[in-house]
Amino acid sequence: MKKTIIYILVSIIAICFFAPFVIMISGSFNDLDLFVADPLFWLPTTPTIENYAKILINESFPRWFMNSVIITIIPVITQVFFCTLIGYIFAKKEFKGKELIFWSLLAMVMVPRQLLIIPNYILFNYLSWIDTYLVFIVPELWTIMGVFLIRQYLQSIPKELEEAAWMDGATDLQIFFKVIMPLSKPAMATIGTFAFIGNWNDLFSPLIFTTSEEMYPLTVGLATLLDKTGNFGLQMAGATLSFIPTFLVFIFFQKYFTEGISLSGLK
């Protein structure tokens, strides 16, 4: 009886999480101008790909897609490398003030992102970064949460591995590239997945820091396109197109992602 109740509760929770995706995908094939609360209207009687065609033939779509790729892929690569390097230093190296510096950096996470948006805008405007790729790439070169994850993960690796490499004459860089990085693949994949999803789906920062349509990423571009049309089916098609890359990345790195989360203690 107890298991039955648990299964029912889990099923209800699963349906609550899965239902929006069903609405999004079924609605994307529906030629419906306005949202209707009745679920029967979400299932297309005559499925059509016209909504996808309208978005894909838009002359700005390739530019928006390229912008999203640039401001996503570069931070993913840099975050994986720099977070691993900095996390290795905080996990395995000893220097004065290490704990104070690390926990001071980690405390920055407690500051809501919205509170920093005005100081950031003033700074980026002073640097003439507004409406450029720099405003999205430079602040995302590394993140303290990525460093925290790597540090937690590397603390579980025995120090004897480093000592054995030192005895063989390896330098710090050789140890990092040939010992630490290969052992850190699960944590690195987790950082990369978080970075990809966070940057690809980001709507807030591009809305603030872009002023021209040609610099819009896909999230903002599709949002402005939808505002102009107000078409429910078009909105769902845009959401589906934007969702596909993050879904594929998660599926591809799922094995490493789960392992990295469990071994780093980040739950």
UniProtKB/TrEMBL annotation:
Belongs to the binding-protein-dependent transport system permease family. The chain crosses the membrane at residues 7-29, 64-88, 100-122, 134-154, 175-197, 232-253. It holds the Pfam family BPD_transp_1. InterPro entries: MetI-like, MetI-like_sf. It is found in: Cell membrane. Keywords: Cell membrane, Membrane, Transmembrane, Transmembrane helix, Transport. The keyword Cytoplasm does not apply. PANTHER family: ABC TRANSPORTER PERMEASE PROTEIN MG189-RELATED (PTHR43744:SF12), ABC TRANSPORTER PERMEASE PROTEIN MG189-RELATED-RELATED (PTHR43744). This is ABC-type glycerol-3-phosphate transport system permease component. Coiled coil: none annotated. The keyword Transmembrane applies.
